[in-house]
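anyone seen this seq b4? input:
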Amino acid sequence: MELDAVISRRRMCRSFLDRPVAAEVLDRALALATHAPSAGNAQGWAFVVLEGHETAEFWRLVADPSWLEHPDHPGLLSAPVVVLPLASRQPYLERYSGPDKAGPQVVEAWPVPYWLVDTAFATMLFLLGLAQEGLGALFFSLHKPAEPLLAHLGAPDGWEPIGAIALGWPGPDDRPSTSSRRPRRPLSEVVHRGRW
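predicted toks r here
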């Protein structure tokens, strides 16, 4: 599939079939994520993949019990896979301490935390890889503190989730959100050449 077709096809999916995703399909999408740009090529990202019964424990740790009893998108809980993209500052401190870099103080002076930016880049490539495989996915924020989840998963100190991705084969009742009806801003409103 051509890149423009993959990009056009990608959208958030909120209902999934209770059907597993083959490991090789998931691995192809995850492999694409590793090609994301990264400051200093530090690659301060990691992906925790939860499948089967592990997804139920994930939902228990991150969702309110009342929502679990009456979710606004019941098919979301059928997602056979949940992936947590994690970011860490430490690989950037280590990389910028190298002899070819100016020192870790550069990382401290960055106007944005590039470990979060780079993990978002990798996550977008992963989402595009899932679309290319014909899978649906929903990126969403965690609504509870991440520490209990990270402890349960055995994540090392210094790693933080930028959100979570529920994924699988789209269910027949999946429908676009009301937000998707909003038109895309035209290029003339987004691009400013030479100055604003």
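The first helix runs from residue 3 to 9. The mean pLDDT is 92. kinda curious what u guys think
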